[in-house]
Write a structure and sequence with these properties.
With 190 residues, the protein is mainly alpha-helical. The protein is built from eight helices and no strands. The longest helix has 23 residues.
């Protein structure tokens, strides 16, 4: 058994089952049936383990977003696909999505590997925007990326909230929401 990998996987299981409050290296060790000191060979603290879990969530998210460039898509289609892929990730991996965007990052998150993975996902969006709007300055691309990211993130967050249960949005309207948002974004950036 690769103990470091097993610790990360078990940390995700603990978070999914009992929440962040239940995550400790001692609990990870207990569940893996190893000595309570064994996880410390790979992670200096609970926060180091949590940072690694969140880093991997961002890596998975960035990998998913890179699919927006796969295939023979026009820049317009690639932009639409990034919204669809973003929403698909948020819907299919809600725990990872919440860990990335609703969990306070531990101080250990300020490491190069963590930051690079977090930035990589945002940079995919900036790449799609550069392809779509090649004459825009880097400054404007950054602002446009934040606008797009915020709009998509807002829809994903509302979908995951209890508020969605009380809105009159059936599954068809929910699916149409991101298409509508991306079309609205396209018009506003146009």
């Amino acid at each position: 058994m690769n103990l470091g990998e097993a610790c990360v996987a078990e940390a995700m299981n603990i978070i999914a089952q009992v929440g962040l409050e239940g995550l400790s290296l001692r609990e990870v060790a207990r569940r893996l049936r190893v000595s309570h000191q064994a996880p410390y060979k790979h992670f200096a603290s609970r926060d180091h383990l949590l940072a690694e879990v969140i880093r991997r969530c961002f890596r998975n998210f960035g990998d998913a977003l890179r699919q927006s460039a796969a295939g023979n898509h026009t820049p317009e289609e690639a932009m639409r696909r990034i919204g669809e892929i973003y929403m698909e990730f948020a819907r299919s991996r809600p725990l990872e999505y919440r860990l990335m965007f609703s969990t306070p990052w531990p101080d250990e998150a300020n490491t190069p590997g963590f930051i690079e993975n977090a930035q990589a996902a945002f940079n995919v969006l900036k790449e799609r925007l550069r392809e779509r709007y090649p004459s825009r300055s880097d400054y404007n691309i950054d602002l446009d990326a934040m606008f797009v990211w915020s709009a998509i993130h807002g829809i994903a967050t509302v979908e995951q909230s209890d508020a969605m249960k009380h809105l009159s949005f059936d599954a068809e309207k929910q699916s149409a929401a991101i298409v509508h948002a991306m079309a609205s974004i396209e018009r506003s950036l146009g």
